Amino acid sequence: MDSLSVTKTNCRYRSEQLDLLATYVRPWDGFMAPSMLVEGPTSSGKTYTLRQYFKQLEQDGQIRFLEIQCEHCLTRKAILHAILRGLIRLLGISSQNEAELVYKCDGLGTFVDVLKRIEHINESNHPDEERKPIVFLLDRVERLLPNENSSEFCFALSRVHEQSPMLNRYSFVYVVNRADSVGIQTLALPLVTFSSYKLDQIKDILTRQFRYTDTISIEQAQFKQFARQFIDVILDTYSSYFGTDIGLMVPVLTKLWPTFITPVASMGRIQNGVNDVLTTYQNKKALLQSEFGLADELATEDIASSDLPTKTKYILIAAYLASYNDPKYDLILFSKQREARANRKVRHSKRKSGKQSQQLSARMLSPQAFTIERLLAILHAIYDENRGEKLANDIELMSELATLSTLKAIMKLKLGDTIGGGTKWKCNVNWSVIKKFAEEVDFSIENFLME
Amino acid sequence: MSKVSLANLEMEYMQIYKMLENTIKFNEGKSCLVIGPRGTGKTSLVNNALLELGEKFRNMFYVIRISGVYQNDDKSAIKEIARQLDWHLLRHSDQPNASFEKFSANETMNSVMSVLDGSRLEEDKDQDDEHEETQMPIIFVIDELEKYTNDAKQTLLYNLFDVAQSSSKSHAVAVLGLTTVTGVREQLEKRVKSRFSQKVIQLTKVKQLSEFCDMVLCLLKVSLDGLDESTARWAATYNEHIEKQVQGPSELRKLVVHNFYTTKDLNMLKNQLAAYLVQQDLTSLGGGSFPKLDTNNRSFQVLASLSEMELRLVICAGRQLLKNSMDQVNFNIAYEEFDKMTKSQTNTLNSQLQTMGRVKLDLATHSKDILLRCWERLIMFGLLVEPIRQINGINSSFYTGGESNKMFYLDVTLDEVAKLFRQTEWVAKWCRL
Q1: Is the Cα torsion angle B15, B16, B17, B22 positive or negative in sign?
Q2: Alpha-carbon distances of B392 from A235, A416, A424, rounded to whole Å
Q3: In angstroms, rounded to a whole number, what is the distance separating the alpha carbons of residues B219 and B61?
C-alpha cells in the first residue's frame, strides 16, 4: 500500500483533503510545492492529517519532516531558530556547529545565508547522499504577537526557493484558521481547505479513542456500546456549547466519564435500569445541569475577600464614579450645596423614566478617562459625607494612589508625568467588585451613578 | 532549477537576455527595471535568462540576488551582498578567511564597493596567479526593489546604479530590479534616478482571452523533444486532448474563462489544474475534477463552523450594534442582550405550555463564564476584531479595563448572518429586531 492510502485509513473522513494534499506533495514524482496553505476551523483535523501523511512519507523514506509549533514561538526569530535547529539535527550536523550557525541568524535578513551554510556543510559531510525534500510544517503561524507581522513572514518563507538553487528542496506548509489572516493572497499558493467534522463523524472518532481495559469486568463489545452511548448522551446535552470542537469535548468527557463508569465497575456488569448510561444520566441530572463538566474549578464566582483598607476602597469607588459618570453631572451628584443636591433624586428619576429600555447602561461600556483632580474632588465629597470625618489630603493618600496604579486597579493613560493636570486616568475595576466594596463600607453607590 | 516556459514574453526575454549578454561579453554596465503585477513571470523571466547565460558562459559571471522581503533595509542588503560575494570567493579561491563582510554596515559597504570599482579583484589577481579572470561581471537581481526606496538617501540603489552606469572595461555590473509597484521610478530620489539607465520592462496581465488560453496551453502541453517514439505518440495525443479541452466547450474551458474574467491569476489556475491532471486517467484521458475554490469572505466560513452558543452571541452583538447604532461592542453589552433574548424565549415557551397544560419548563441557563469563554473563542476566530487605536501615544491594547469591557468590531453584520442561516428557524427569529 502506498503512503497515501495508509494515511487515508488512519485519518477518517479526510480522504478528499488528502487527495488534494497528495496533488501538491508528491515526492515519488519528484514534485513538491515549495509552499502551501492549509486552512480550516479549529478541530477539523488539519495538523493531525498533515502529520500523519508526512510521517508516513518520512517512514517510507521519501521526505524528511519537521513540525514547528509557531504558537509557542511567539516571534519570527524564534521560529526561524526553531527551523534551523530542527534542520541541523535532522541532517546530523555536529552540535558544536549548531550554536554557531543558529546564532548567525538574527532575522529574515540572515536566514537564507544560514540555510545555505547548512546545505553546504551537509553536502561536504555526505557528498553522495540523495537530496530528499524537507517539509516544514508551521502550525498556527498566524498566532504570533501582533507586531510580528506573520504575513510578511509567510511571504518571505514562500520565496526561499527563489533565493538560491541550493534551497529548492525545502517546502513550507502553513496551517492557519483562516487564509485571509496571513494576507498572501496574491502569491496564489496552493490551498487545501478543511471543513468541520459532522457530529456523527466526531462521535465515531471519539468512540475509537476509548481504550478497553479488563479491570472493568465486562466484554469488549459491551464496553464499546456503553462508551458510544455515553458519548451520545453527553455530546447531545452540551452540543450547543461544543459545536464541533473536539478540543472542548475531550476534557469534559474525561471529567464526566468516572461518574458513569464507576457504577458499572463496582457492580461488575451492566444492568438496565440500574447502572446503564441513561439511568446514570437521570440520576445525575443535577450534576449535569450545573455546568460541573464545563466550568473550570479555578474560575470561581466569588470575588477574593477584600482585605483592603477602607480608604483604599473609597479611592476605588471614587475612581469608578469618576470613570462612569459624565463630568457634567458632578455638580448634581457631589455638590455640598443643598439646592443642587435636593434636585438630584428628581432629575435622576426623570432621566430614568425616559427611554430606559433602549438605553445602554454606562456600566457596560468602557470606563471614561478622568483627571486626578476630579478623582480627588469626588473622593473628598463621598468620604466626608459618608464617614463624617475629613479626609486628610496627605502624602499617604498619594502613595495609596501610586500603589493602586502599580496594581493596575487604576491606570494611567500616559507615560511620564504622573501628577500633572493633563494626565488622564481610568478605573480598571469592574462593577461587581466595586459593588462589593461599596457594600462593605456601607456606601450606597447606586445613588451616585447617573443612568 | 530548470527553465520555465512562458508564453507571449519572447520580446521581453530577448531584451533582458541581450542586456545581460552584453554585460558579460562586452563589459557593458546596465540597469533595468522589470515591473509587473504578481504572477506575471518577472522572476521566471530573469531566471530563464540567467540559466541560459549560465550554460553559455559557464563561470564567467557572478549573480547576486537580494530580495526586499528578506533584506528589508540597506544595511542588511549590503551585508547580504558581501556574504554572497564571500560565497563566490569560497568557490573560486582557497582562502577561507577572505571575507567581505565586516562587523559594521559601513565597512561592509566600503569593502563591497571597492570590489565593484574593480580594484580589489585586481589585487586578488596579483596574489592568486591561477585565477586569470580580471574582470568578472556581476549581475545584481533585486527582488521587491520598492523596499529600498523607503530610505531617504537610497544609498544602496544609488551605489549600485552608479557602478552600473560607470562600468568600464575593468569591471562590469548589471542591475536588474524587479517590483510590483508601477510608480517605482517616481519614488527614486533624483540623484538615483539620474544614474538609472531608464530602461523599464513592463509586464502586464493579458487583455485577450485567446492570449490567456495560449498561456494555459503553454502551461499544460508537454514538449515532444527527446521523447522516445511511443511516449512521443502518447504525448501528442495528450496535447491534442488538452488543446481540445481548452478551446472547446468543457469544464476546463469554463474554469479558464472564469479565472480570466475574475482574477486572471495564472498561479491560482495552475494549482487547480494540477489537482485535475493528477486525478486524470492517463490512458483514456478522462475523469478528474477541479477542487472547489472558495473565494467567499472567510468570516462566513467561520460562522458556519461555530457552535450554537457562539452563534447566538454573535447575533446578540449584532443586534446591539444595530439597536444602539454603535460601531463597536463589548461582552457586557452582548451578554445583556443574550440574557434578555433567552429569558423572553423561555417565557414565550412557558406561556405556550401553560395554555396547553400546567407544565413549567425550566430551561438550563448558561453562566456568564461559559459565555465569556465563547466570546474569547470568537475573538480567536477573528470574528471580533480588536481595534488598533492609540490613546495618547499608548497602544490601547495595553489597556484592558477588564476583559468584558473591551470593545471590538464585529466582522459580520446581522443581515449577513440571517442570509447565511436562512434555513435555520431560530436564527431567523433571533435576527429579527
Answers
A1: positive
A2: 48, 12, 9
A3: 31
User: Would you place residue B128 in the very low, low, confident or very high pLDDT band (cuts 50, 70, 90)?
Assistant: very low
Helix (H, G, I), strand (E, B) or coil at A433: helix
Helix orientation angle between A108-125 and B74-92, rounded to the nearest 10 degrees: 20
Measured between CA atoms, how close is A56 to chain B, in angstroms? 20
- Average pLDDT estimate for B222-248: 85
Chain B residue with CA closest to A37: the answer is B271
Report the distance separating Cα B273 and Cα B261, nearest Å.
17
- pLDDT band (50, 70, 90) for residue A318: very high
User: What is the maximum alpha-carbon separation in chain A?
Assistant: 97
Confirm if B208 and B256 have CB atoms less than 8 A apart. Answer: no
Alpha helices, DSSP H, located in A159-245: 160-163, 199-209, 220-242
Strands A424-427 and A410-412: antiparallel
From the list A14, A341, A384, A375, the residue with the least C-alpha distance to A194 is: A14
Q: Which triple of cell numbers denotes residue A46? A: 488539519
DSSP per-residue codes, B254-317: HHHHHHHHHT--HHHHHHHHHHHHHHSBTTTTB---PPP---S-HHHHHHHT--HHHHHHHHHH
ipTM: 0.85
Answer for the pair B58, B70: CB distance below 8 angstroms, yes or no: no
Q: What pLDDT is recorded for position A354?
A: 46
Cell numbers for B354 = 401553560
Check CB contact under 8 Å for A367 and B291: no
Residue type for position A398: M
Q: Which residue in this structure is represented by grid cell 549573480?
A: B63
Mutate to test the interface with A, among B399, B408, B421 (most CBs of A within 10 A): B399
The two beta strands, B390-391 and B394-395, are: antiparallel
pLDDT confidence of residue A356: 46
Which three three-digit cell numbers place residue B181? 509597484
Q: Do A295 and B369 touch (CB under 8 A)?
A: yes
CB pairs under 8 A between A and B: 177
What does the pLDDT look like over A37-70, one tens digit per residue?
Answer: 998 888 888 999 999 999 999 998 889 999 999 8
Q: Locate the DSSP E strands across A289-409.
A: 370-371
C-alpha cell at B316: 446578540
User: What is the H or E stretch that residue B348 is in?
Assistant: helix B331-356
Contact B299, B382 (CB under 8 A): yes
* Cα atoms in the 13 Å half-sphere on the side-chain side of B161: 24
Cell of residue B384, nine digits: 471580533
Grid coordinates in use for A27?
515526492
Instruction: Set out the domains of chain B in order of their start, with CATH numbers.
Output: 10-123+133-202 (3.40.50.300), 209-284 (no CATH), 299-431 (1.10.10.10)
Pairing state of beta strands A25-26 and A31-32?
antiparallel
d(CA A43, CA A40): 8
- A190 neighbors A24 (Cβ within 8 angstroms): yes
Check residue A196 and report its DSSP letter: P
Of B83, B87, B298, the CB nearest to A179: B298
A40 burial level (CB within 10 Å; 0-12, 13-18, 19+): buried
pLDDT tens, B129-187? 444 445 678 899 999 888 888 888 888 888 888 888 876 666 788 899 999 988 888 88
Q: Is A296 helix (H, G, I), strand (E, B) or coil?
A: coil
A426 touches chain B (CB under 8 A): yes
Q: Which residues of chain B lie closer than 8 angstroms to A405, CB-CB?
A: none
Q: Which domains does chain A have, with CATH numbers?
A: 3-193 (3.40.50.300), 199-294 (no CATH), 305-448 (1.10.10)
Nine-digit cell string for A201: 463523524
pLDDT tens for each residue of B308-318: 889 999 999 99
A114, closest residue in chain B (CA to CA): B83
